[in-house]
């Protein structure tokens, strides 16, 4: 009786492994809207700045597989891969639309813009899901 399940497992594994060339993880341009609030030493809102910023994002599909297993409690061994950043670059962007707490646009130098630091992907790859050690 043990020979029949083993034969089925070998055939199934062969079919799953034949689809490993489907990876399409890419670094793509994107745009996000950022709103940043600044507070004074008493915790009161002093200004709000916002802007549309061009950034990179990771997008795509990575090959994952499920195969029968006599070792795992569920009877299946899952190998999941996700598209995510392999390297982040840090850059400073300037938000150019700043307003006081009443919604009046700030024009005075020094408060009319706000520089913020952000990290964005500069390269994306397929990684085993849940593996953050890289």
Automatic annotation (TrEMBL):
Q: State the protein's name.
A: Bursicon beta
Question: Which Gene3D superfamilies does this one have?
Answer: Cystine-knot cytokines
Record's keyword terms, sorted: Signal
Q: Which GO terms describe its biological process?
A: G protein-coupled receptor signaling pathway
Q: Does the keyword Ribosomal protein apply?
A: no
Which GO MF terms are attached to this record?
A: G protein-coupled receptor binding; neuropeptide hormone activity
GO CC: one term? Answer: bursicon neuropeptide hormone complex
* Signal peptide start-end: 1-18
């Amino acid at each position: 009786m043990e020979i029949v399940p083993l034969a089925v497992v070998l055939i199934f594994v062969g079919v799953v492994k034949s689809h490993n060339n489907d990876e399409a993880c890419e670094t793509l341009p994107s745009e996000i809207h950022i709103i940043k609030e600044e507070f004074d030493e008493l915790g009161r809102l002093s200004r709000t700045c916002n802007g549309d910023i061009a950034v990179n994002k990771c997008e795509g599909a990575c090959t994952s597989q499920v195969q029968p297993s006599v070792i795992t409690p569920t009877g299946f061994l899952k190998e999941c891969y996700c598209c995510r950043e392999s390297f982040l670059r840090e850059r400073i962007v300037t938000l150019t639309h700043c307003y006081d707490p009443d919604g009046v646009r700030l024009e005075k130098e020094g408060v009319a813009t706000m520089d913020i630091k952000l990290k964005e992907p500069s390269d994306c790859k397929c990684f085993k899901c849940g593996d953050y050690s890289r």
